[in-house]
């Protein structure tokens, strides 16, 4: 009795699974790996693509950002990479070194929808490695200042700070006023689990992070040290909270006025719009990051993600069609509408949905002043190490001098193989 | 009567035949990978090598020397010892305590409690971590709320380097003690009742019975439990990985977490393999020491 039941189950399962296979055999299946929120939201664009491209079916696998790097490397080692993926553009050098990515120059050249000139220069450059194009920017991410207009005004600052000196003066004033009102307030929020503030300030200070053809660390140089001292002063003077546990919900803390300024990326426009209570919807605004020199705005980072095609893919043409679709002007605007992410194409910025949004204007200004990051495969490892030392400095467990010296030592070790390869006359 | 030599030989052959599947599996999935890792630990296998095997260099003992020269490794080792030396005894004591309570004649609803105490062991760690993160929340967490009744101020359990490891230990002990508890209960049930009866007649109190009967009779179980616990606790990984990612200020970075980061986050496989063998050596020394200690006290 039991056994015959089992046999039936096996037969039914076998029939249904082979049935599924036969059904999908007609269409080319393209595997796409999306990260975090984008991995979820991209699904809403797919029906339109599948309607206009009946021979192609897209399957999306969503991967959390925290596991994405491991997962992609493991997939490469196990020869199970998807056809296309969304890749943080600072990871491109690493995956290019692995030879995991397909060069795209030829395809872009022949493409009717993708024109190189239409992309913000600073952003496109992060996708070019040794003058070969390996990724198509999907959305851009640069960091901006989000601030509480009402609270800054109350403190006597009608305009957001344009320089870091102004920023420090503002913080001091706010801290003093809060103290006399008996309130707890952090004028600024510079999270210690992010490497962006340190690198951003370092770039503005003109610090070269790596020297000697990117084979030696230079964090202990005077310029980067100056940037770290500036960053450290925010924690030492209690302008910014240390650690994450106090600010469990950044949006609540921002609405309560516990923090009044925050340097973060474009994805937060959508989040702020949704999560900040309605009576404060006019109270917050965005501005380009403060500057260390006389040029405004200050330098910011060309971050964001790119769409990449994997060399191991067996349906590159179908996959490329989907990349073209996602990168098209129309879809980048549609993607902006559902995620708040910023399109990397200049022509998309002429769309009314971007032009009418007051919070987005500052990003446009900022996108015109970006500087590239060093393109070495070890970059991710370097900045995670930097982030750890920032935490030590922030919590006063280490001086800036010691932290940068140790960081140089650690990074020099990471780059040992790179030095050896260059001595051998090997790759980049 | 001795069996004929031929008979004996065929018996041995049969034994090998029956062992073959298990041995094959162990060989393929254990022995070969371990030997591979050993070879790997003498190379600088990294992402460049992943791209092109020609870029692997044999570096001899350099990985090992470099690890011993890395302050972060010693931090991780210190954290791991902290976890083993505080968490290990605590875990054994808690499991012994609950086993004694559940084995007591006064206990009611034994099966129910046994199930409750065992439940954390079979619960997914990720789910447990989410709940414990709420318990540990500095402002709204239950733990700080309870402590505030005693006038103890806000403690940032997972954000303060002083308290992060105790917080991890507390959670790990809670999560794991049920397993050892079951083994202790089995051990306790094997102690013949007449020993206690005789002691009772001789006028021995609860404490004397515990020290002179329970503990000695439980010695083999205890040795087993301690050894398994120590070996397991040295490999601390999942708790800090999901709760703190090794932070704050590396206060919960364990040796295995360090190895994982080196190996699977940065793909420095040679380096990671060397860390694994250093940890293996440490665990081996500890286990041998324990066996030696047990032999000496046992005689």
Give descriptors for this structure.
heterodimer, A: 428 residues, alpha/beta, D-Maltodextrin-Binding Protein, domain 2, 2 domains, five-stranded mixed β-sheet, four-stranded mixed β-sheet, 47% helix, B: 299 residues, mainly alpha, MetI-like fold, 13 helices, globular
Describe this structure in words.
- The complex is a heterodimer of chains A (428) and B (299).
- Chain A is an alpha/beta fold and 428 residues long.
- Chain A has two domains: 27-142 and 302-356, Periplasmic binding protein-like II (D-Maltodextrin-Binding Protein, domain 2, 3-Layer(aba) Sandwich), CATH 3.40.190; 144-300 and 375-423, Periplasmic binding protein-like II (D-Maltodextrin-Binding Protein, domain 2, 3-Layer(aba) Sandwich), CATH 3.40.190.10.
- Chain A is built from 20 helices and 13 strands.
- Chain A has helices at 2-25, 36-41, 46-52, 65-77, 92-97, 105-110, 121-125, 149-154, 164-180, 196-204, 222-236, 250-256, 267-275, 316-327, 329-339, 352-355, 361-367, 379-394, 400-414, 416-423, and strands at residues 28-35, 56-63, 84-88, 128-129, 132-133, 136-141, 144-148, 186-189, 210-211, 216-217, 259-264, 284-287, 303-309.
- In chain A, the strands form four sheets. Chain A has a five-stranded mixed β-sheet with strand order 2-1-3-13-6.
- In chain A, helix 10 (196-204) packs across helix 11 (222-236) and helix 18 (379-394) runs antiparallel to helix 19.
- Chain A starts with a helix and ends in a 5-residue tail after the last helix.
- The relative contact order of chain A is 0.16.
- Chain B folds into two domains: 5-55, no CATH class; 64-298, MetI-like fold.
- Chain B has 13 helices and no strands.
- The model of chain B has no long low-confidence stretch (mean pLDDT 90).
- Chain A binds chain B through residues 69-70, 73-74, 76-77, 94, 97-99, 193, 243-246, 248, 377, 381, 388, 391-392, 395, 397, 413, 417, 420-421, 426, and chain B through 44, 46-48, 50-52, 55, 57, 66, 137-139, 156, 158-159, 161, 247-250, 264-267.
